[in-house]
Amino acid sequence: MLNGLKIPSVLSLFFIGCITVSSVFTIACNSEPENRSVAGRNIEVHTGFPVIVDSAFYMGTDGKTWVITPSASNRQLVVMKPTIVNRTSTVIPLLVDTEAAKIGDRRSRRFPAIDPLLKARSVSMVLEESPTVKDISPILWGDVELARQTQVEGYIVFDVPKGVILGTLFWDEIEYIPVDFIDYWKKRD
Hints:
Layout: H1 10-28, E1 35-39, E2 43-48, E3 51-53, E4 55-59, E5 65-68, E6 75-80, E7 83-86, E8 91-96, E9 101-104, E10 110-112, H2 116-119, E11 121-123, E12 133-135, E13 142-147, E14 150-153, E15 156-161, E16 168-173, E17 175-180
Parallel strand pairs: 4-12
Antiparallel strand pairs: 1-2, 2-7, 3-6, 4-5, 5-11, 6-15, 7-14, 8-13, 9-10, 9-16, 16-17
């Protein structure tokens, strides 16, 4: 005791410090990661969560603005920006088309990516990005030679029915790699 105050022991200070540090780590590490990554035998697929938009646009090589909209009023556009990484093979010829990427649910239907070059229409006005309008430059589409220890990244667009569960990106080029955004095996209360 010093001037009527109890001096805490070193053990109790250590105990309080451990509780404080573990609380900070628990709170900081309790959130979902913003990106999902799955490694296959030859490639890795990294992507963020699907983004639902009313329209998407890009600047073409001709300098024109090209816009993509849903095919019907009961559909919506889903935009994703995957990164495909080659860590092992010498060179991987990658063909990104409607069969390479699909989005959907492991328990129901899957929807293929749309060809942004065929589905887009030219507009004369300059568009700006907003919460419902997305700039999808650069586009990940067509043939890509992916050398060892390199990666390619770009936007892929899907035209899906409104209300569909967007639980998984199914990558099926070079190898089949499903990237889940929801936990299918979690018990529901």
